[in-house]
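Show me any protein, fold above all:
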Amino acid sequence: MTSEVGTDTAAQTVFGVVDSHADTLHVAVISDNGGHLADTEFTTTAAGYAAALAFLDAHGHVSAIGVEGTSSYGAGFTRAARSHGHPVVEVNRPDRAERRRIGKSDPIDAYAAARAALSGRASSVPKDDTVVGIRALHNAARSAVKARTAAANQITHILFAAPDSIRAKYGRLRGTDRIDALARLRPTGDAVHVAVLAALKILARRVKELTAEHTALTKALDSKVTVHNPGLRAAYGVGPDTAAQLLITAGGNPERMRTEAAFAALCGAPPVPASSGKTNRHRLSRGGDRAANAALYRIALVRMAGDSRTREYVARQTAAGRTKKEIIRLLKRAIAREMFRCLTTMVAVPAIADLRPLRQSKNITLTAAARHFGAWPATVSTLERGMRRDDDLAHAYRDWLQAA
């Protein structure tokens, strides 16, 4: 620990920074002209947070505190600092060039981050805690999918090398048929057959359990994101997983993103110049939050498949000579603009709760309604249940039902 605290600390303005880890926090203080004042280490406990804040306050008026990992290791300290009225900014880790030049240690990283906070390079407002529950459910659902995929792949690989009788019986089955059959089997035969069949049965039951777990988590996640932002969830092509990812990326306080261009950059969807010589074009960005970028990509694919306006736009761009990659890039940028509007403003969602009772009161089947509008029955069903948003179809459907 180093310290150069003067006798008149109350009058000076200081900047603090926290280099956060799983068990410890390294806190550094610099003056408003960049001079190193002190640094020391504290534990990641309530007592450690209180001691760290007292340490910062002892050196003068704290203008701002920069924290690395405000949504991970530094989340606890961020909450404590905010509760004491200290402004907190998010600090990125030092760039690699600087680390190669001056080396790496907790004090070095802390002072580098403090200079970033002082200079204004670190000015992002941390995310608030209102999406913590959504993040937890989203992570659990994603891990269930990954574990289920791993178990299903293990079943496939075991069947590749299984005895011929087992491979002939279960290798030709696919999907849920294979999983259901393996979950019901009773291992019999010699030692090899019993071992292989027992492993397949256990893995199949694991797949079924993880499927049920993922279904329950998705239902809870859907409820959470719909309550948090009904306009976002109701947007065409935005499902529970996609809506959750965009909320996690933006945070519960999306006003921290000043413009929709900033949100597009955060999602890795800005147009990046890629021109050379006679070629004048843009390419997809390879930066930003790749999970948010994947969410925009999924929305684009859904709209390309089922949204009439998007399909017309794709046809126009294809006729103009653009490739599929270029069209998807344009779509992702436009979708990012729409998602930013949903995240930062309250978007009114037209009521659809009356559609199904109205149809049933007229004794009209889903098939008849779908046939009238030239759509699939599933399209009308998801519209009635609020799983699909199509305002034009909803208005036309209501008018048709009322006139029937």
Observations:
- The chain has 18 helices and eight strands.
